[in-house]
Amino acid sequence: MSADQVTEYMSVLGRQARQASRVIARATTAVKNRALLATAEAIEAAEASLIEANGLDLQAGRDNGLDDAMLDRLALTPAGIRSMVEGLRQVAALADPIGAIRDMKYLPSGIQVGRMRVPLGVIGIIYESRPNVTVEAASLCLKSGNACILRGGSESIHSNRAIAQCIRQGLDAAGLPQEVVQVVETTDRAAVGALITMPEYVDVIVPRGGKGLIERISRDARVPVIKHLDGICHVYVDDRADLNKAEAIALNAKTHRYGVCNAMETLLVHEGVAAQFLPRMAALYGEKGVELRGCPQTCAILPQTIAATEEDWATEYLAPILSIRVVADMDEAMDHINRYSSQHTESIITEDFTRARRFLGEVDSSSVMVNASTRFADGFEYGLGAEIGISTDKLHARGPVGLEGLTSEKYIVHGDGHIRQ
Amino acid sequence: MSADQVTEYMSVLGRQARQASRVIARATTAVKNRALLATAEAIEAAEASLIEANGLDLQAGRDNGLDDAMLDRLALTPAGIRSMVEGLRQVAALADPIGAIRDMKYLPSGIQVGRMRVPLGVIGIIYESRPNVTVEAASLCLKSGNACILRGGSESIHSNRAIAQCIRQGLDAAGLPQEVVQVVETTDRAAVGALITMPEYVDVIVPRGGKGLIERISRDARVPVIKHLDGICHVYVDDRADLNKAEAIALNAKTHRYGVCNAMETLLVHEGVAAQFLPRMAALYGEKGVELRGCPQTCAILPQTIAATEEDWATEYLAPILSIRVVADMDEAMDHINRYSSQHTESIITEDFTRARRFLGEVDSSSVMVNASTRFADGFEYGLGAEIGISTDKLHARGPVGLEGLTSEKYIVHGDGHIRQ
């Protein structure tokens, strides 16, 4: 396609999505659930053809030299398909946020005012070559009453087309327009540029992927973006910590999984317990093969530690590397966090009520914890039932974004002929 | 100042605001209220010098040929100063939204998760030459724990400098840094361009003013914008309406004030009651000097009516002009609204429960009403206690934006050594 043709194609998708969004916005919970469950059945029934379509993507991926991690994310296995089906059923089982009314109250004029939860409209989702995201994103948008336009990585195009076919069957079965969920069927990169610059058709963009992609999209978008950039998460071990809890959490937050945004990247330790705590941790990290990079005080306690540079404090390693800094007190810890944190997730380990209370109030991150591993910062662990991503923005949605993050609230007013005096 | 100097000046303001935002974010309610009340006292005490400074602006305005409406908005009278002082005391009396925790609950893992309301950080406000907005915006940002940078119209520069002096006295008296509220003291237009492109220092922009200004800011901003564009509001009179209520509301919504965003611009009338209702309304509108522009059916009922053009349906008159359309039923009314509304405020007049319920659910505007005048769409009328503006965006805040709209929520987690399994 030429650039003009891509723009034209995308604006057709946009127009159709806008129209379909009006239908899905007022669809009943029962109808939306029927579409989700029928999609689950269609995917189950299409297992063989999904794996066949995915085979084309995998073959092309290998021919184009994709690395093993990318091929792994691209692959659709029978187990992966079962988990997609399971995910659809879970989303069907979630409470429907749409139409919920809260805080309806009488005002002095006699009118009653409250708020009603409503869909955002049309959501554009841009993601990497992970076919399971196609199903996940479609199901969350649908349940929250939104139409969506899904643009997955070009390496997964055959898989996504096959999945889109199943979703269309599900929408059909529920009597919903097929345009409620549209998969971009061109691999042309100009499609992304068009998708993020159609405010007349698209209400919000959710990019999922590497930091570079997300920064580029945020810079160029003419539509609001719910985005996730870095996860430079901190654990601060206070001198009033229970060091057994601190040990379990500092180990879990770093080593439970390395490549995730809610893993700890920097450990801050009160100088009053550093000499006691750090050698214990160094032994445990050593067993796991975690490389340590420390401030001068850390290096004095753990002589084999590499000296951390300024850059270390500002780095999301996503790897078995940890930077460690000894601080004089909680204020110094919070200053460090204020300066280097990506405002994702920070945790204090302390038994002191007043410090816990201050840390919770004063640390400006999307998740702030006391005596818990940063790894809990996750939509499922928070009981949202699902997660479209984790927002590091301050407006609209902070932290894990579930169904509610794909909605907003309008005001509703009940009167009985009331006029303004 | 050269363009470089303006950029440098603005980034100094930005850096200072970011720093001050950390202090105001954790200030107690008592300290914030002390600052508000001390500012009120400072303004009262400075009445003479405020009026003198304002005199310089008015003189310059007259010399530069400002029209009467602009001079009127620019003028600071003793009564206007009293109402600024009163406003500060009202904001001090409002509940502090910051730190409120909701929905703290145990999850299966044993952690407790809830949400805490927090400030946005630094808010940039861009507005016309209305000195009272300086006080209003400063007080709302301060109470909601945010630092702010205020950029008023250049015609009000002397007034704003004098007001800024009073606000600094108020901040001083409460022991807060003066940089919590900063007024841009250059009239150079490049200051606006700099303010909206410093995401490192400014978290959100609230523009107040004409549509052209707001569109320009939204287009160029590299920071989220809470904005208000058109107010093309509709009243739909159903055939099951109580026509006495309909009459009172249709009159109030159009004629209570003409130049406001929540005034009705289009009246939709069910064909079953049009012949009975429209002549009554035409007489009342005639008395008020409202010009009517109608669809062919309207013109058949009211022969002296001008024929409405396609453009009329899409126009925010802000004037004693009303477009009228007869519709076959509520669905046609909602189709018209979907197509032409600016999603600000729409009201249905009906005694029918099922239609009221459908209208409330299906009309996608920031305020949807039953049997009430669109003029109620207002922060004070909704009980917010204050209003920084009315948002026509869908993300974050829809409709009247009070203190809560200047905040967001973070997640907080309480554990007892919990780690992720």
TrEMBL record, chains A, B:
SUPFAM superfamilies assigned to the protein according to its UniProt record, in alphabetical order: ALDH-like
The entry's keywords: Amino-acid biosynthesis, Cytoplasm, NADP, Oxidoreductase, Proline biosynthesis
| Pfam families recorded | Aldedh
Location of the Aldehyde dehydrogenase domain: 15-284, 313-377
> EC top class, in one word?
oxidoreductase
- Primary localization class, coarse: cytoplasm
Q: Which domain of life is it from?
A: Bacteria
Molecular function (Gene Ontology), one example: glutamate-5-semialdehyde dehydrogenase activity
Which pathway or pathways does this protein act in?
Answer: Amino-acid biosynthesis; L-proline biosynthesis; L-glutamate 5-semialdehyde from L-glutamate: step 2/2
Its GO CC terms?
cytoplasm
CDD domains named among the record's database cross-references: ALDH_F18-19_ProA-GPR (cd07079)
Known catalysed reaction(s)? Answer: L-glutamate 5-semialdehyde + phosphate + NADP(+) = L-glutamyl 5-phosphate + NADPH + H(+)
GO biological process terms, semicolon-separated: L-proline biosynthetic process
| Compartments it resides in | Cytoplasm
UniProt-listed Enzyme Commission number(s) = 1.2.1.41
Family, as annotated: Belongs to the gamma-glutamyl phosphate reductase family.
Q: Which NCBIfam families match?
A: PRK00197.1, proA
Q: What does this protein do?
A: Catalyzes the NADPH-dependent reduction of L-glutamate 5-phosphate into L-glutamate 5-semialdehyde and phosphate. The product spontaneously undergoes cyclization to form 1-pyrroline-5-carboxylate.
Question: Any idea what this protein is called?
Answer: Gamma-glutamyl phosphate reductase
Organism (species): Halopseudomonas bauzanensis
Gene for this protein? Answer: proA
